[in-house]
Amino acid sequence: MKLEDMIMVVENRKGTETNFLTDLWRYMEMVVKVCDDSAVDMADAIGQLYGTKENNREWSELYFAENKSIHAAFCTGEAQLRGFLMGNFNDGEWSFDEGRCPKNCLEVLRINNMKTDGCSLFTCLHYEPVEHTFHAGEVLRNMNGNDYRVLAALSPKNLLLMSMADSQIIVGRGVQLYERYPKGERPDSGSLVTGIEWDHGVYLGRDITRIDFDILGQEYGEPDRVENVSDLRDKIRRDFWMQKNVEQKEGLPERVKNAARDCLEHIFGTSEPDVFAKMLDKGMYDGMYHTKEEQKQISGSSR
Q: Which of 54, 146, 223, 272 has the most neighbouring CB atoms within 10 Å?
């Protein structure tokens, strides 16, 4: 059973709240009792429950009687689960009933290093690095139980990620996949947790249209490798469009756009894409970067 398959339940009886964890099968049994075999009511109740998987969605509600009700939600992450165990979702007097939790739910707590009060179960955990080649499109889970989709692998350890919970776009620097288990224990399927951690996160907001991917590639990507004419022309094309995008970008001061246009004219002899493309195809830029590299070597050796 996975953490996100577990259901958090708050039972309110005459104002006193009792928290417990359950699975979908046992929750369905509660729904059947409340809905009295009404297919429409049961479908509505389950629909409300699955709606809690969405970000910031209200908890579902079941009313047994005037003085007894149940609020429930699928667990969406480790931080939320800890908060539930600590009573952050309760109003007034509450308690946690471990006896009403099935074994598979208690096992999920153990795997995720939690006691029923939300505190850590193990004082020390071992992290074992795992070799992994990250690629665009895969979904990764970090050690806090949050999911991220890889938008681009800028380099083997720097990833452009999107949070599945709130669509926040992040550059994860120094991303590493780990296997985690209690220190001193032999890892098995019951104690092993696999997830990522990163050294530093750069948060870019939720609007992907405002992100300059060329700059991200330069800042966090690997240096371009130029091994043949095709590689060289690809690099020249990227350099041209990096400046051209600045010239065309809305909202920038005119002096900045003019500076970008002057830079294009100085380096490439034109700021017009059609003219640049023809000159590139004719090989008119093929020697420009080799010449600059030779100049660097000469100036470097003279110092």
A: 146
Alpha-carbon distance 10 to 108, whole Å? 18
Using CA atoms, how far residue 32 sits from 4, 17, 21, in Å, is 23, 22, 18
Segment 70-91 mean pLDDT:
90
Which phi and psi (to 5°) does residue 25 adopt?
-60, -45
190-205 per-position pLDDT tens digit: 678 889 999 999 999 9
CA 28/CA 37 separation, integer angstroms: 11
Q: Give the model confidence (pLDDT) of 110-163 as tens digits.
A: 888 889 999 887 777 888 999 999 999 999 999 877 889 999 988 889 999 999
Task: Read off the tokens for 154.
Answer: 């800028």
Query: Residue 300: pLDDT above 60?
Result: no
Here the tokens at position 252 are 């920038």
The length of the chain in residues reads 303
Q: Which two tokens stand for residue 135?
A: 């690629």
CA distances from 64 to 34, 90, 280 (A): 6, 19, 74
**Quick one: pLDDT band at residue 288, thresholds 50, 70, 90?**
low
277 and 271 in contact (C-beta within 8 Å)?
no
CA angle 74, 167, 161 (to 5 degrees): 110
Q: Do residues 141 and 79 make contact, with C-beta atoms less than 8 angstroms apart? A: no
Q: Which two tokens stand for residue 190?
A: 């019951």
Burial class of residue 60 in the structure, from the number of CB atoms within 10 Å of its CB (0-12 exposed, 13-18 middle, 19+ buried): buried
69-98 core/surface letters (b: 16 or more CB in 10 A; e: else): bbbbbbbbbbebbbebbebebbeeeeebee
